[in-house]
Specification:
The complex is a heterodimer of chains A (144) and B (147). Chain A has 144 residues and is an all-alpha fold. Chain A has helices spanning 6-19, 23-37, 56-74, 79-82, 84-94, 99-115, 122-140. The longest helix of chain A is centred in the middle third of the chain and has 19 residues, at 56-74. The chains are: A mainly alpha (144), B mainly alpha (147).
């Protein structure tokens, strides 16, 4: 298990402080990219009228997802208990195949590279990648 | 045979015409070695890879970044038959270099992120899709001769 070091947590918190005000934009763009580049992910959103990049449902859901990420940053010292109810939601109600967490994480990183080219250094990249993987693990906790 | 739409062909050619090969190759390989440190197992002869700063400034990493870009350019120039173009490269990676092919996806992800950083908003979701499709074909072709 690749757990977060003290340095990883500090890096994530510092970077998040810089980018959090753009949370909704990050979420919307990451989700848009996921739906376009990995069309199989659209199967989870067949109830939406519009799945195109920048559409209202995509924007709204992007904000929801990044709200979850914000919560994860705040609870970075214990993601498993901190994200318990989100884990139950994903396990029993949403039943999103966990492989998709990796896909969305990748697209979040792409957006960060685009929006914050100087701040998204290799050191920040590895810390964020580890963090998003840890969030994915916490979300998968209740699956079986 | 892979089918490329007109949009995909144009987008991929456009990306490669815009990016700085020297910067992208080196930056992508550096990120791969930093973000996925187990990939360093294949670069024992590269000297100092002890931390991010060392990796980023290592001249052997930079040189190898160029080798990788030259390989990608071969695929770019032969988009309609990357599989055949890459036959020898695939044999090299499987039999001589003995690289676990899952690593190709790791480097591919780092390339996508570095290209995104270089192109900015011009790297739209659709352009990203075309680029990732190109990388997927490259990776599949590199995997072909693993037995």
């Amino acid at each position: 298990k690749m757990s977060l070091s003290a340095k990883d947590k500090a890096t994530v918190k510092a970077f998040w402080a810089k980018i959090s005000s753009s949370g909704e934009a990050i979420g919307a763009d990451a989700l848009s990219r996921m739906l376009v580049v990995y069309p199989q992910t659209k199967t989870y959103f067949s109830h939406w009228k519009d799945m195109s990049p920048g559409s209202a449902p995509v924007k709204k859901h992007g904000a929801t997802v990044m709200g979850g990420v914000a919560e994860a940053v705040a609870k970075i010292d214990d993601l498993t208990s901190g994200l318990l109810s989100l884990s139950e939601l994903h396990a029993f109600t949403l039943r999103v195949d966990p492989a998709n967490f990796k896909i969305l994480s990748h697209n979040i990183l792409v957006v960060l590279a685009i929006m914050f080219p100087t701040d998204f250094t290799p050191e920040v990249h590895v810390a964020m990648d580890k963090f998003l993987a840890a969030v994915a693990r916490a979300l998968s906790e209740k699956y079986r | 045979m892979v089918k490329w739409s007109d949009f995909e062909r144009a987008a991929i050619q456009d990306i490669f015409s815009k990016i700085d090969y020297d910067v992208v190759g080196s930056a992508a390989l550096s990120r791969c070695l930093i973000v996925y440190p187990w990939t360093q197992r294949y670069f024992g002869s590269f000297g100092n890879l002890y931390n991010a700063a060392a990796i980023t400034s290592n001249p052997k990493v930079a040189a190898h970044g160029k080798v990788i870009m030259a390989g990608l350019e071969k695929a770019l120039k032969n988009m309609d038959d990357i599989k055949t173009t890459y036959k020898d490269l695939s044999v090299l990676h499987s039999e001589k270099l003995q690289v676990d092919p899952d690593n190709f996806n790791l480097l591919g992800d780092c390339l996508t992120i570095v290209v995104a950083g270089q192109l900015g908003a011009a790297f739209t979701p659709e352009v990203q899709g075309a680029f990732q499709k190109f990388l997927a074909v490259v990776v599949a072709s590199l995997r072909k001769q693993y037995h």
